[in-house]
Amino acid sequence: MDERLSRTIEERTDELAALATDLIRFPTVNPPGDAYRPCAEFIADRLRKRSFGVEFIRAEGTPGDSDRYPRINVVARFDGRTRGSTVHFNSHIDVVEAGEGWTVDPFAGTVKDGRVYGRGACDMKGGLAASIIAAEAFMDVNPDFPGAIEISGTVDEESGGFGGVAYLARKGYFSKPKVDHVIIPEPLNKDRICLGHRGVWWAEIETKGEMAHGSMPFLGDCAVRHMGAVIRAFEEELFPALDQKRTRMPVVPEGARRSTMNINAIHGGQTDDYSGLPSPNVPDSCRMVIDRRFLLEETLAEVKDEIVTVLDRLKESRKKFDYTIRDVMEVLPLMTERDAPVAAAVAEGIREVFGREPEYVISPGTYDQKHVTRIGHLHDCIAYGPGILDLAHRPDEWVGITDMVESAKVMAVGLDRLLRGRGR
Length: 424
Description:
Elements: H1 3-11, H2 13-24, H3 36-48, E1 53-58, E2 72-79, E3 82-92, E4 110-112, E5 115-117, H4 121-141, E6 146-154, H5 165-170, E7 181-184, E8 192-197, E9 199-208, H6 223-243, E10 260-268, E11 285-294, H7 300-317, E12 323-331, E13 334-335, H8 341-354, E14 359-363, H9 369-374, E15 381-383, E16 398-400, H10 401-420
Parallel strand pairs: 3-6, 3-7, 7-15, 8-14
Antiparallel strand pairs: 1-2, 2-6, 4-5, 5-16, 8-13, 9-11, 9-12, 10-11
């Protein structure tokens, strides 16, 4: 790669680590959506100093938005000397709860042994910091570049992205002609390009029953027992069938190269907010939330029909069995082509920085590319960033400082190709 660009990024290693540390210190936990505004303002202040124009967009009316927890997104833009393409780096600023098991303060941004530790270090404040340093270094080395660079810090990705990228996409922030190429610095490992993700269908299944006194359950109908029959049918019929479905998508890890379903939650009968002893009732309702991940080779209609077929068969064979099913969320699988401009540009960066071919992967779970593609109709979008995917959401989450530096170099090469046309 350009020696000046490489050297400029290396000289900012300490600055990059400090920037990641500062971002981690904002406890942007979702839910409920803490510290969104101060984190967005911090990013804005940083980029204003580099003459970026900054805009704050509150996603009013989206899930979770309130005056106490406003869904504040920040979008910054720098226009080059002449017209050209626009490259947009999009990072989510929300993180999941810290949970237990940490050996360091999850929101201190601890620097130790060449790593930055903290909730969000890997997923994905390290990627956000790397994209900012990459953009600033590129601008310093190439002050006359054509086109524009955008950097955004968006919210709620961990809960579906509806108050973040989905909202902005509906407002035209991720569509042509405003934006041409999008890089999302999710932690997929520094020598990988993530082209997309599997599909997801979340649904709630409710089995029905009839309430009666717990000492005389024969007078009622236990909805929990009906749900037990559903689980048994899933174990005997559905899960073995899903295990047989394989995909051409390069999903990582290997176990995700098939259809999967997780039972997220089950609740039936007495609520857990009582004090004292539970009341002796036969439960008349039991609810299950399922998380079904599916492949390019499957249609959403087929995925839903598999579940409904099992439930309808139980309805025919099991006395008094009845159910309802409610859609919670549905996202289709997607995969950007390897020779798409943004993928090709980042691939060149990986070759120049690491001296080897990139690995092309698909994420097992969805991320905000779904909204860029489905709502913004912008298909030149990939995920690329520092961090090890397996560390996301875990205690003692960390991102390597060298990994951030090298990823920033890859991003800078990508900018050079997309904006200045080098290598075409």
